[in-house]
Request: fold
Amino acid sequence: MLEHIELFFKSIFIDNMVFATFLGMCSYLAVSKKVTTAVGLGAAVIFVLAVTVPLNWLLDQYILRDGALAWLGPEYASYDLSFLSFILFIATIATMVQLVEIVVEKFSPSLYNSLGIFLPLIAVNCAILGGSLFMQSRDIQTLGLAFNYGVSSGIGWFLAILAIAAIREKIRYSNVPAPLRGLGITFIVTGLMAIGFMSFGGMLTGGDEEAPAEEAAQIETVTPEAEEVEVVTNTTNDIN
Amino acid sequence: MGLLSKKDAALIKDPLFDNNPITIQVLGICSALAITAELKASIVMSISVIFVMGAGNVVISLLRNVIPSKIRIIAQLIVVAALVIVVDQVLKAYAYSLSKQLGAFIGLIITNCIIMGRFEAFALANGPWRSFIDGIGNALGYGLILCIVGVCRELLGSGSLLGYKVLGDPIEKTGLYAYGYENNGFMLLAPMALIVVGLIIWVQRSRNAALIEEN
Reply:
């Protein structure tokens, strides 16, 4: 149970898809002009991640990884098909998106209308493939954890796009230097938000003894450590 | 430019500056930001994307009359995924540590929006040679921004370029460090990539007023 809670908060805040690994930036920038559309896309991302990450976990566990084919018989135990993971993952994602679209259209037309145009776009959203690839490289242990990872990183992405959409609606009334308008200011605001999110870095490492009220002070002291973790994940990416 | 006609040359030149995939078309941001803490990684990433773009555009352009339009996204994804597997295996064989460092981001070339964007916008409607040039041009424009960001971040962040300590040794206090210069470790962190790209956009748009967006 504890590891579920830990993974949940870690994927939402510390390893936030947008702010820590820059996944799904393209749609994040393109669809964040209005809060309502941002909510639609965010919900679709949570939904698709929750379906595809566990599915790809099963694929990885029982077909792709080194020795995964052992259930077919001892002579298959030495096969390592992990070089096929890109093509299988993306095929799963593309077909699942198509399938989800058909099912949702049939059984819940209202949901279909609100997600509608975003669903097909999602197949090429790097956040979705990234979710599966990070699930593989971080060596998630059980199916439940994989589902948890999919849902919580989706929620992290949702939070990010919701926040930037709200900020952009406000920025429209501000006097931004002309060359920075639109894309430029969005980049810089996202950068500042990412710096803000880095302060969550100490959330799961150092907060055992301190009371929640001291959190503000604690963030100050923990930041260098958090930065270190950031640098490592950013440059080597094979930690975790 | 004997090899290229004027129109073809424009296909290479436009995406480098005035129609840059990253700063103007807003495509392929994810990988541009995540792996630019070092120049070397940026260069390898650019080369990989140039290969995948060039080859992928040719394949899609050759197949453009065969692929049914309803399933074209899946077909395109499969083509890119196959090419990316080639890149990934080559990197694993010849540059293992680098491939470890780039990690999942090589796989994420598959969903790099530049590639899908150019397939949809160009290769599905043009012949193989022009599609090839368009692919190379756009990938070069992408690589240019990647390398600029990589240079800024590595030079200011760790005082080196491609691993060579061009500003002197920070521990022995030689070169610039003798005058009290310090590395700005903040440049190595993820958020600074966003801010550097934001600044590049700022510079580019103040030089060319036609690119300024409506508020």
Chain B touches chain A through 58 residues (CB under 8 Å). The radius of gyration of chain B is 19 Å.
